[in-house]
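lol ok so funny story. i was supposed to be doing the assay writeup but got distracted and ended up predicting the structure for this chain instead. priorities right. anyway since i did it might as well share w the group, maybe its usefull for someone
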Amino acid sequence: MANIILNGKHLDLQNSTTLHQVVDQFCKGNKHVIAELNGTIIKADQWRTLAVKEGDQLELISIVGGG
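and the output, tada:
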């Protein structure tokens, strides 16, 4: 297990979890997400290969439009 901070809350994840898996789990179906890992914005094309590790701080921001 890896303990990370996701949007300010502690969360336990499996060690083999990728950023893509975390985004998919917590931002279901939302195609407009910004991911910031340890203070750096990560481009979506890197999510599938980037592992989330013990102690990482992750912020996921979903962009929602409306009127």
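Helices lie at 19-26. The radius of gyration is 12 Å.
back to the writeup now i swear
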